[in-house]
From TrEMBL:
GO terms for biological process: iron-sulfur cluster assembly. One of its GO terms (cellular component) is mitochondrion. The lineage of its organism: unclassified sequences, metagenomes, ecological metagenomes. This is Folate-dependent protein for Fe/S cluster synthesis/repair in oxidative stress. It is found in: Mitochondrion. Its main location: mitochondrion. Keywords: Mitochondrion, Transit peptide.
Length: 266
């Protein structure tokens, strides 16, 4: 199953200081990144909240960044500001490279995201048979791959999106990056009261919708929709939720909203 991943920016970074520069900007260990894989990275602000969640790939001395289009201006501005006099060139190749999401198939030269999914980079769709993009979204949800868009930018610390589990998106020994002290403090001294879980419900769900639990004492909503897809009459989605209430009655946006069902695998 192959889908074209529209609405994603694609940047190429190269130059002698690129690896060191990215190591000091992102949450994961860029120095450990190997060719042929996709590494999840949070680009955080100083309070540890995620501005953008990026797919980072490497080919030779080039580094590729893929993330939602609506965050392009923010990410490019931030990268440009922090690179200062470093030997780093940032090139927007969104109009030249076609990004494909591949599920349960082999695709020559693709970058592995997980055991089921990979990302392929091509210049033409000749000979490629495309499937419904909703199938890619459904696979991301089933594999707990979060997304951050403009609507949810700066709403999550990495732990809320489970990026600390098995260090899939955060490395705790790599050294400094923006927000690192806050993220590390929560990891070593605390326990996240909210985590990302999979849900489903009848009807429509939107990114940034709120989860409401009647028994919660929190002044904020009990959770936020992180990623969603509509398959037929049902919506399947990832959302943050207060762990203490994850199996309680949860509704969407208000107490009288659509009731949600948590999906538990295995």
């Amino acid at each position: 199953m192959i889908s074209q991943l529209n609405d994603r920016t694609f940047l190429k970074l190269n130059g002698g200081d690129t690896q060191t520069f990215l190591q000091g900007q992102f949450s994961n260990d860029i120095d450990a990144l190997e060719e042929g894989v996709v590494q999840l990275n949070a680009y955080c602000q100083h309070q540890g909240k995620i501005i953008a969640l990026l797919w980072v790939m490497k080919q030779g001395d080039d580094f590729y960044l893929s993330f939602p289009d609506d965050l392009k201006a923010i990410v490019v501005q931030k990268l440009t500001m922090f690179k200062m006099m470093s030997d780093v060139d940032i090139v927007d190749m969104s109009d030249e490279i076609i990004q494909l999401g591949v599920v349960d198939e082999n695709f020559d030269g693709a970058y592995k995201l997980n055991n089921q999914q990979s990302v392929a980079l091509v210049k033409t769709l000749d000979g490629v048979e495309l499937d419904d993009a909703n199938e890619w979204e459904a696979a991301c949800i089933a594999n707990d791959i979060p997304e951050v868009t403009l609507a949810t930018s700066e709403k999550f610390v990495p732990q809320l999106l489970n990026l600390d589990i098995d260090e899939v998106g955060v490395n705790f020994t790599k050294g400094c990056y923006p927000g690192q002290e806050v993220v590390a403090r929560l990891h070593y001294l605390g326990k996240s009261k909210r985590r990302m879980r999979q849900f489903e419900c009848e009807g429509e769900v939107n990114m940034g919708d709120e989860l409401v639990v009647a028994g919660s004492k929190s002044a904020k909503a009990s959770g936020i929709v992180v990623r969603r897809v509509k398959l037929g009459a049902k919506s399947s989605f990832l959302a943050t939720v207060e762990v203490a209430y994850e199996d309680d009655k949860i509704t969407l946006n208000d107490a009288d909203g659509i009731e949600l069902t948590r999906v538990v695998h295995g």
